[in-house]
Write a structure and sequence with these properties.
Blueprint (H helix, E strand, L loop, with lengths): L8 E6 L22 E7 L20 E4 L5 E5 L2 E7 L3 E5 L2
Antiparallel strand pairs: 1-2, 1-5, 2-3, 3-6, 4-5
């Protein structure tokens, strides 16, 4: 089973934050923040424009993106937690 995003939605696999600080202290589950970075797993075909054509997606599969803390909808597939996010909810693409 696979998920294929529709329209201008993007399927993102969150990248978990470090569980250990730079000084070597391990963080308990309650102190961890929700991830705000992730890897693009799949993209939809793009938003349909008024002229009937589709707008090209600005992110590609494999890109690392930054999104808001509460953006998107969580889904679980084969034991993995994924997010479906609208392209407009993305804050940026990490390069390098």
């Amino acid at each position: 089973m696979a998920i294929k995003p529709l329209e201008d939605r993007i399927l993102v696999e969150p990248i978990e934050n470090e569980t250990k600080t730079a000084s070597g202290i391990y963080l308990p589950e309650s102190a961890k923040e929700k991830p705000v970075r992730g890897k693009v797993v799949a993209t939809g075909p793009g938003k349909r424009l008024e002229n009937g054509k589709r707008a090209e997606m600005s992110v590609k599969v494999g890109a690392t993106v930054v999104y808001g803390k509460y953006a998107g909808s969580e889904v679980e597939l084969k034991g993995k937690k994924l997010l479906i996010i609208k392209e407009s909810e993305l804050l940026g693409v990490l390069e390098g």
